[in-house]
Structures are given as structure tokens and as C-alpha cells.
Specification:
Radius of gyration: 21 Å
Distance between the termini: 55 Å
Structural class: alpha/beta
Strand order of the largest sheet: 1-7-6-5-4-2-3
Length: 383
């Protein structure tokens, strides 16, 4: 594993989420130095003339970068394990799949998770002789006998179903399988899958983790050194690393994670309450609602409910009218950012109805967002 920096006191487990987010991965204080060092831009580094790369953790920019190591330390502190950063969430998850699985292995994937992962499995994994089976996030789950890797995404994107991580970890390990959890939607402040028994966490840091809609990032976290060494070798060979500036932006953005998630979740609660009262909105999903199918598990597993709400406006035209009428809701295909955005997921290949909307609540004032959304739905007319 790459050398880890000397962490500040923010890594102590008795601190709250805000303190941990602000201090995660920072080097020890040195008089005259910044709190978070600026990005290090380098392809080669000076080598010791006699012993070469053995004298320093930095030899060449693809495997070695101090800015990236600080970010990995920060995310690792929040997830409760060691971390490897990747150029995108898709790069992280495909690294896990291709480095862990071999021809003849079986992998179990969610039917309702991130669509490009399912497409990758169908087109690439099956092409190299990996058996790919699918199961809904909410189950029921089949026997894990003969399965090498179980990958779940909880809460699932975009439908927001959840599964019991601890139960699945117990079942997977009893069958000799590994459990990987996509933690993109929840973030490590929403849930810590490694604490619940997962072997691996994968996530897109593009979304709520960094939250400013200005970079692509992915990561893998684990407490199993052998797994991380395998994945590190894959990353070093394939070169799927984030650039130094993106790593620095991501680390800077982590400091406000607790604040951003708190407002996003509060906005989602208010939006869900408004949508629930409307007869022209169907299929409302938010795991924080007491009558949501995901609530029984989400209420005991999630430390906070994500700021994503899903609902159905009936057809594509009505969704378009709703988005055109709104002043605050941006049409965009991502989530977890500062700005509230909405996405008609059927246009990207998800197995949902034509009017299905994934709404990602931003950090706008709650009253403003609710008023704008209500006015936009009224302007969009009935189905």
C-alpha cells in the first residue's frame, strides 16, 4: 500500500462527523505550512543517485503522488479502512471486478443499480468467461454457494431500495464469497459498510462526496490488505488514477461534507412531504419516509438519509415541462451536488418508466426549493 501521511486528531473516532470531515487526511501541523498542501504536479521526481526510488515514496507520477495519498488518507478515515483513489467511480468498480474475478467465477450484481455496471458485466465480464447473475437490491437473494463476489448498491440508484449489509456479509462469508458495497448514494457519513462486515467499498466520489459538480473521482476502500494490494497492482498497471488537481479539489471539498449532507437531507424530507400530498405525483420513494418500502432497513442501517427523492410524473413530456418551468431545479445527470437537479432516468437506459424522475436536492434554502418545485409541478399540468 502507498505510504500514509501523519494524520491530525480528526481521525479520532470520538469526534463528530463535521469535525472528522474537516480534519480528515490533513498532515500534522507544521509552522509556516498550509493546513492542506497545494497539489503536487509531477510526472517524474528527483531520484537518489545511488538507491533510486527506494529512498522516497515518490518515484514516478502514475503510482506515486503525495496529493493523492492525502486524499486517500482522508477518505480512508471516513470509511474506516485503507483507500485507493481512481479517476472515476466506473474506473473504481471495474477495477474491483476485473482484478478480483477470474474466468469461471460467478458475480452477483443488482438489477437496479448503476446501469453502466450492468452493461460492463454483460459485455465484458461474460466475454472473459465470468458468470454474471442479477438480483434486485431488495431481494430475495439466492444462495451464495459458488459465488466469488456479491456486489450491492445500497441505497440503489435510482430506485432507492436498500438491503441489509450485515446480513448479506454473514451469508457471503459463510459461502466463501466476498461482499462489495457501492456506497455512492449514502457516502461514508451515511453508512460505513466495512463496519457492517463488507470486504470492499466502492464509490463514485463525483457525486455527494465531493459535491461541487466539478470533478470525476472514484475510490475503493477495504480493511483487507491482500485485496487492496491486488487492486493497487491493477491501478498501477492500467493507470486509472485521478490527476493531482482533481485529488486536491476533492480533499478540499470533503471539509463541507457534513454540512452539505445535512441540508440536502433536510431538503429531501421537505420535498418528499410535499410530493406525498400531491395526487398528480406517483411512485414516490425516499427511504426516510415511514411508509417507504426501504424504511425498516434504512432506519437502522443509515446514519443519515441521502438527499435523493424519486417519483413518477407519468410521461416524458410532463417531466420536460416540469424542468422547463422550474427556476431552481437543473436538468442534469448526476446527483449529490450543491444545486438541486433532476434527471429522467429512462433516457439513460435504466429499467424505469418514461416519467420516472430522480431528484437530487441541493443546498438551497428549503422554503425556496419547495416553493419552486410546487410552482413548476403546477405549471407542468396533469398527466
Amino acid at each position: 500500500m502507498p505510504d500514509q501521511p501523519n494524520h491530525g486528531d480528526g481521525s479520532r473516532p470520538d469526534y463528530g462527523d463535521g469535525t472528522r470531515s474537516v480534519h480528515a487526511g490533513l498532515p500534522a501541523p507544521v509552522p509556516g505550512q498550509p493546513f492542506l498542501p497545494g497539489p503536487v504536479f509531477a510526472a517524474p521526481y528527483h531520484l537518489d543517485p545511488a538507491v533510486g526510488p527506494e529512498a522516497s515514496p515518490n518515484g514516478y507520477g502514475r503510482p506515486d503522488n503525495p496529493t493523492r495519498r492525502l486524499l486517500e488518507a482522508a477518505i480512508g478515515e471516513l470509511e474506516g479502512g485503507e483507500c485507493l483513489a481512481f479517476s472515476s467511480g466506473q474506473a473504481a468498480i471495474t477495477a474491483v471486478l476485473l482484478s478480483v474475478l477470474r474466468p469461471g467465477d460467478t458475480v452477483l450484481l443488482p438489477t437496479d443499480g448503476y446501469f453502466p455496471v450492468r452493461a460492463f458485466a454483460a459485455e465484458t465480464l461474460r466475454g472473459i468467461g465470468v458468470r454474471v447473475d442479477f438480483v434486485p437490491t431488495a431481494g430475495p437473494y439466492p444462495s451464495f454457494d459458488g459465488v466469488r463476489l456479491v456486489l450491492v448498491e445500497t441505497p440503489a440508484n435510482p430506485g432507492l431500495d436498500v438491503c441489509d449489509i450485515a446480513e448479506l456479509a454473514t451469508r457471503a462469508h459463510a459461502a466463501g464469497a466476498l461482499l462489495a458495497v457501492d456506497n455512492t448514494t449514502a457516502t461514508p457519513l451515511g453508512q460505513r459498510p466495512l463496519d457492517l462486515g463488507a470486504d470492499l467499498v466502492v464509490a463514485s466520489g463525483t457525486k455527494a462526496l465531493t459535491g461541487h459538480s466539478d470533478l470525476l473521482l472514484g475510490y475503493v476502500a477495504s480493511r483487507t490488505a491482500a485485496l487492496l494490494e491486488t487492486i493497487l497492482g491493477w491501478r498501477t498497471t492500467t493507470g486509472s488514477i485521478p490527476g493531482a488537481f482533481d485529488a486536491w479539489l476533492a480533499h478540499r471539498s470533503l471539509a463541507t461534507l457534513d454540512l452539505r449532507l445535512a441540508r440536502q437531507s433536510a431538503n429531501a424530507a421537505a420535498v418528499a412531504a410535499v410530493l406525498r400530498a400531491r395526487s398528480d405525483v406517483a411512485g414516490l420513494r425516499w427511504p426516510g419516509l415511514g411508509d417507504d418500502p426501504a424504511y425498516p432497513i434504512a432506519s437502522r442501517q443509515l446514519r443519515r438519509v441521502p438527499g435523493i427523492v424519486a417519483f413518477d410524473l407519468g410521461d416524458a413530456d410532463r417531466v420536460a415541462r416540469f424542468l422547463a418551468a422550474s427556476r431552481l431545479v437543473f436538468a442534469a445527470t448526476s446527483f449529490g451536488g450543491l444545486h438541486t437537479s433532476a434527471d429522467r432516468r429512462a433516457q439513460w437506459g435504466d429499467d424505469v418508466s418514461a416519467g420516472f424522475v430522480r431528484l437530487s436536492c441541493g443546498v438551497e434554502d428549503t422554503a425556496d426549493l419547495v416553493a419552486d418545485l410546487t410552482a413548476a409541478l403546477d405549471a407542468a399540468g396533469g398527466r
